[in-house]
Structure formats: C-alpha cells, structure tokens
C-alpha cells in the first residue's frame, strides 16, 4: 500500500501517512482539533458529525502549496489563499468579474504540493453546501449535511494524483476532433441572415472558423426547441446545411428550465410525463428565467431522461445540430428568496408555505444550523436558485442535491447525444461538479472585458483542469462590456492556446475580423491553432486515458522545481509545449520562466538552453504577433499543413514532425 491509516478510538482521531515508515509530515492529521459543536451540547475532538452539519479538521504544514476548491475567479493566482476566509462550494449564477466568490461550479477537492514535489490529494465526496477554511496551520471542511466520504490520493506526483482522482470521478471526455477548432457565438444576433454574414466575414478575413453557436435569439421567446421570427425554420435549416457543406459545424444553446406556456410542446409533454421538481405543495416548482415563469426538470429521473431524449431527437430531426451548449444549469433562477411569480400568481416555496403542505421539509432546511459563506457574505442559499425545500421525483431535497444539478443535465444529455449522433458530439456546460468533465466541456462563464478578468481566467482554467474539466476555456476578449483593441488582441493570442477556444460576447461587437490589429493577429494565431491540432488532439487522448489535464500548471511537468509552484500565468499544453502570453496592458514583452531543459521557440526554432537550471527569459510579442510559445527538447510535435480553414481540410493534408532535440 502507498498510504497507511492510523487512528485513535477515544477520542476519535486519525492520520493518513505514507507507507514504509517514513518520517514525513502526515498527509492528513485530525489530532489536536477541539471545537465547540454549535449548540449541540458537546465538545467533539477532531471531527463533528451531526444532522445538517459535518466538520473535520487537519493540521497542515505552512510550506505546503494547495490548489483546487473551484469554482471562482481567484485574484491571488492558482495557489489557494490561507487567510481563514472560507472557500464556499455552492453553485450559483455569478459572473467571474467578481473575484474570490463561489460561482458556477463546486469542486470539493484539494491538491497538496509539498517542497520537493511530493503531492497528494484530499477529496470530500459531498454534494451539500460546504465551506473550506485554510490557514497556515490547518485545513477545515464544514458541510451542511450529507456524509463524510473522504478519499486520500497518494500521488506521489501531480500527474499521479490526477490519475487517481479521475479513476474515481471519471476520465475526461474524448471530444470530436472538430470541436478543437475555433468557435464563435454572440448574444444579440437577431436574424439567421446576420449569422450567415458573420460566417462569411470570417472566411473573407481568412480566419479559420470551425463552429458557429447560436445564442437564445434563435428561439421563440427563449423557449427551447422553437424558432423565433428572425430564425424561420426553413431559412435556419438552410444556414445549418450550408455550414455542413463547407465542413463547418453548428450547435445551439439550450436552457434546462422549461417555460410555463400552455400549448408549448416541451411544457405540455413535461407536465403529462411528470418530469418537474416539486415545490413544498407538491406542485411543479416555479422559478423565473429569460422566458418568464419556468419549471425545472429532474434530470436524474428515468422518466425525465426519456422525455428529454424525445425532445432532443425531435429537434435534431428539424435542425441537425453537431453539439449542444447547456447554460443556466446551476440551476439559475431570477427569483430572489422564497417567492416566485407565474403570471401574477404567487408561488410560495419557503416557510410561509409550510402550513399543511404535503412536502414539508425537516426542520432547519430554511435556516440550517451552519450558514455557509455564500457570495463571501453569507447570502441565503435560496437566492437565485431552486428552493432548498423543493423535492426531486425520488423525494430527495434540493438542499442535499443542489450542487449536482448541472452534473445531472450533462449526464442525461451526453447519453442521449451518444445515441442520437453516430460520431462523437460536442457538449458544453456552465455548471460543474466533480465528474462533469467526463461528459462535457466547460467554460468559465460571463467574464468581463478587463485585463484583470483575462489574468484571472488563466488561473480559473488551470484550477478547472485539477477538477477533471480538461476541455476548458474562457470567452475570448470577455463576455461583458467591450474589450479595447489591445486587450482583445492579447486575449485572442492567449485564447488560441486554451483547450476550448471560443469568441463569445454580449455587449457591442468583438468579431475578430472587425478591427485591423485583432484581424491581423487572428490571421496568424488561429491558423497556428489549426496546425497544432494533431498534437493537441493527442493531449486530449492522454487526458481521456490517464486523467491528466491538458492546460497544465508548470509544476505538473516539473514538480521538483519549486519555482514552478506559484506560476499561474504560463502553462503547459500537454508534455511538450509551454505558452507564456503577454497579459499586461501597454507592454510588448514578458518575463517567461523556463524550467530545466532545452527550449525552442515554436516559430523560428531558436534554442534556449536552461538545462543547467531554470532561468527567466524575456519574450517579445507585438499586438499583431503570435504569443511566446516554447517546445521542450526531447519531444516530437506533429503539425498539420498550413493554409487550411477547417479541421476536415487539415486532416486531409500531410503531417510535419517537429523534432525538438534534448540538447541544443
């Protein structure tokens, strides 16, 4: 065995140590933790286990570097802060432009990196609301219910920990080749003719666009599987067929909530099949979204999966999509608190509705004994989501299952897509739990067009990789507001080297062909992304086979180099390629750290010998230039032919092997 468990029965406590009698500091050690039990009239040593409250604490050395606990937009980089302010795991519709607060995902996993490179993982498999508090001396988990299901992952390397983690939660999904190409979408394209013009403009600008994604404007009043006046079915189908004829792809957005609208087919069939989560009165729970009043399907239930399969199959027959984008699945709800409205009818879901209701929840669901640090301000857990008193079709409370709603949508949808589309298909989700990456790609949500959001998005993507979300990306140039030409150029240069690469925005227009500097940059960097796809695709296969992330922190590849532990604005793509983009305003160079080895400039093959020890080098890049990218000696990188515009054309051409010798 790699690890040993040592415990004391009275008072109960335990320690996890590496096997073999080594004198290392324990990986996890509850000894010495004595905490009052929040009014439970007892003092509990080491851990606390009560209905609606679980707590466990471990000592931890001050020189350990910790990672994980997504999802948020960290202002301090990839390494977790240890200031005693809780990290909260409660999925919510929160844009990442607000840093350091819980947003779309919940990942109860910590990677612990010790000096010299020894690494292990701590996983608490619990879907309830959780606070994790880190200090220089301690690590403490506080869950609002569930069970104490702890896993200790021995490593002893970062890659070893990822292999072990994904053997539990599922290996990253192997995506279709085409989904690695550039994608484009935008809120506000009001007609299908405008969409067609955008695709044409990309082609005229010689910027290779692989996939066009349509946002909500294609649907009538934001209702799934419908067609708005600007997207009549016949013209819309002709647009999709035209994309396919050119070797391009199409995917629409869908929201998991269903609009309450008599005569709307998905609503009528959902009511008839009884697929919706129930409120405290036993009726379908009502919330609000773009379409107005909505119900929430229970995607865990077999009856819902059969209903969802029929809805998707009927829509695919009308519009042959190549993939789907699931949004708002935290699950988002525009209602605040316990009251929602349906055409003026008040729906009570909170304590006021409890009198005489058939689904009265246990005491404490609305006011649990411990309040998690939701939004960093202890915002009530009823805000902007399904009421914690709502029940799934098997009777389980939303209180216990909240963090899993997004996971349920991708598990159900992935299974249906596998049956519906003969080849591998694309699926994108906003909300994630551990295991979501086994079914879907993920993006970091509604980033703002700011330099700070650009930098934070890098650490966020790296952290998502640690949670098994290997197919990860951020909206290039930012989703909210409008990026300056300089910011958009730098973001596009970096975004071309994300695993998932998409230009998606809301305010204004940020298409890559509009502004001259960005157009010139995009004409270089996205053809390079296409050329490197044979290598990139191989990294996806490695992730799918061994569980490693694709966009990796440097310490993954160089764990014995302690300098790499705190670097979060450079990353490895697989084993061979390192990206060091310029992420600061008003500069044309960056200082890049090269770990021990011989490194080659990807574009001109100039060698930099760092084999005697890691070194810093200054890398230059103008606004219209490719970003600094290096190849590590000792690797072979397959490249596709230059001059292609789609992955279909790329795969029809010959490969070139870029051989990087281990010595210059």
UniProtKB/TrEMBL annotation:
Belongs to the glycosyl hydrolase 31 family. Keywords: Glycoprotein, Glycosidase, Hydrolase. Pfam families: Gal_mutarotas_2, Glyco_hydro_31_2nd, Glyco_hydro_31_3rd. Residues 54-128 form the Glycoside hydrolase family 31 N-terminal domain. One of its GO terms (biological process) is carbohydrate metabolic process. It comes from the Eukaryota. The keyword Ribosomal protein does not apply. CDD domains: GH31_MGAM_SI_GAA, GH31_N. One of its GO terms (molecular function) is carbohydrate binding. It comes from Coccomyxa subellipsoidea (strain C-169). Residues 172-538 form the Glycoside hydrolase family 31 TIM barrel domain. InterPro entries: Gal_mutarotase_sf_dom (IPR011013), GH (IPR017853), Glyco_hydro_31_AS (IPR030458), Glyco_hydro_31_C (IPR048395), Glyco_hydro_31_N_dom (IPR025887), Glyco_hydro_31_TIM (IPR000322), Glyco_hydro_b (IPR013780). Residues 549-637 form the Glycosyl hydrolase family 31 C-terminal domain. This is Maltase.
């Amino acid at each position: 065995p790699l690890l040993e468990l040592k415990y004391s029965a009275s008072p109960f406590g335990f320690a996890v140590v590496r096997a073999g009698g080594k004198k290392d500091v324990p990986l996890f050690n509850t000894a010495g933790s004595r905490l009052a039990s929040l009014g439970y009239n007892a003092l509990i040593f080491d851990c606390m286990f009560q209905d609606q409250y679980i707590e466990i604490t471990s000592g931890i050395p001050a020189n350990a570097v910790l990672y994980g606990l997504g999802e948020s937009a960290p202002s301090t980089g990839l390494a977790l802060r240890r200031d005693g302010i809780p990290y909260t795991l409660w999925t919510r519709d929160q844009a990442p432009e607000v840093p350091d607060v819980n947003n779309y995902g919940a990942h109860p996993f910590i990677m612990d990196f010790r000096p010299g490179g020894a690494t292990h993982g701590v996983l608490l498999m619990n879907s309830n609301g959780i606070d994790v508090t880190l200090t220089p001396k301690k690590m403490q988990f506080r869950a609002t219910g569930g069970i104490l299901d702890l896993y200790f992952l021995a490593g002893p390397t970062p890659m070893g920990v990822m292999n072990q983690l994904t053997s539990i939660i599922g290996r990253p999904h192997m995506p279709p080749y085409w989904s690695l190409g550039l994608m484009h979408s935008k809120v506000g394209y009001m007609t299908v003719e405008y969409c067609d013009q955008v695709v044409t403009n990309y082609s005229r600008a010689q910027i290779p666009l692989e996939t066009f994604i349509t946002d909500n404007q294609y649907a009538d009043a934001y209702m799934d599987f419908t067609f708005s006046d600007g997207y009549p079915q016949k013209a819309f189908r002709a647009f999709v067929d035209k994309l396919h004829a050119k070797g391009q792809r199409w995917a629409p957005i869908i929201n998991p909530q269903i609009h309450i609208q008599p005569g709307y087919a998905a609503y009528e069939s959902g009511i008839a099949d009884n697929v919706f989560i129930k409120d405290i009165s036993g009726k379908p729970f009502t919330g609000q979204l773009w379409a107005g009043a909505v119900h929430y399907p229970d995607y865990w239930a077999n009856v819902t999966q059969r209903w969802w399969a029929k809805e998707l199959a009927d829509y695919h027959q009308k519009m042959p999509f190549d993939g789907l984008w699931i949004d708002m699945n935290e699950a988002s709800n525009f209602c605040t608190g316990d009251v929602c409205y349906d055409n003026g009818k008040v729906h009570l879901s909170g304590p006021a509705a409890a009198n005489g209701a058939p689904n009265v929840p246990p005491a404490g669901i609305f006011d649990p004994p411990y309040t998690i640090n939701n939004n960093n301000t202890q915002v009530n857990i009823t805000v902007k989501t399904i009421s914690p008193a709502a029940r799934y079709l098997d009777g389980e409370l939303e209180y216990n299952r909240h963090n899993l709603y997004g996971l349920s949508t991708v598990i159900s949808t992935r299974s249906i897509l596998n049956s519906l589309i003969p080849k591998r298909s694309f699926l994108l989700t906003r909300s994630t739990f551990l295991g979501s990456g086994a079914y879907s790609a993920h993006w970091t949500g509604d980033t703002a067009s700011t330099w700070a959001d650009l930098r934070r998005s890098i650490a966020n993507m790296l952290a998502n990789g640690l949670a098994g979300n290997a197919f990860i990306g951020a909206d290039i140039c930012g989703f909210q507001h409008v990026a300056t030409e300089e910011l958009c150029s730098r973001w596009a240069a970096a975004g071309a080297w994300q695993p998932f690469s998409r230009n998606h925005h809301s305010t204004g227009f940020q298409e890559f062909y509009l502004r001259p500097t960005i157009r010139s940059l995009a004409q270089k960097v996205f053809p390079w992304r296409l050329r490197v796809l044979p290598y990139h695709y191989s990294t996806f296969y490695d992730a799918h086979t061994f569980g490693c992330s694709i966009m990796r922190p440097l310490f993954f590849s160089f764990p014995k180099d302690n300098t790499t532990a705190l670097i979060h604005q450079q990353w490895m793509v697989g084993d061979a390629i390192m990206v060091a983009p310029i992420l600061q305003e008003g500069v044309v160079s960056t200082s890049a750290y090269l770990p021990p080895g011989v490194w080659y400039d990807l574009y001109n093959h100039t060698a930099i010998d760092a084999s005697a020890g890691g070194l810093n080098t200054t890398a230059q890049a103008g606004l219209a230039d490719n970003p600094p990218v290096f190849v590590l000696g000792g690797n072979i990188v397959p490249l596709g032919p230059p001059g292609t515009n789609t992955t279909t054309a790329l795969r029809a051409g010959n490969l070139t092997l870029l051989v990087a010798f281990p010595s210059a």
